[in-house]
Design goal:
The chain has five helices and no strands. By secondary structure, the chain is an all-alpha fold. Helix 1 runs antiparallel to helix 2 and helix 3 (about 55-65) packs antiparallel against helix 5 (about 80-105). The longest helix is centred in the last third of the chain and has 27 residues, at about 80-105. The chain is elongated, with a radius of gyration of 15 Å.
Amino acid sequence: MFIKNIVLGVVGMVFFPLSYFVFWNLNFVLWGIVVSGVLIFFYFVNVYVIGKRRTFFTITSSWLVILSLAFPFNFFFVGSVKLVLLYLAVVSFSLSWMMVFFELFASETFKGH
């Protein structure tokens, strides 16, 4: 279910460092690596902490976090497009983690026995 996150994260970990030779933009490379790492981390949080509960929040948050890949690409644009990509990435990142935290408490992962 969340395998797309880890695949995109690993592809990003390879693509973004190699893209430095094409774009010569260190901010693009660094934020690309950070976002790719977050995608991989998001996979482990969703699968191993919450479990394999298939709810609206886990499925939607898994797709929303992929929109955070727009963040590194805002370094290529100016004006309105840059602002839209930045807001899209930040809002999707925030919403996806909010859904994960909600599901974390709803699934009673840390409930005492």
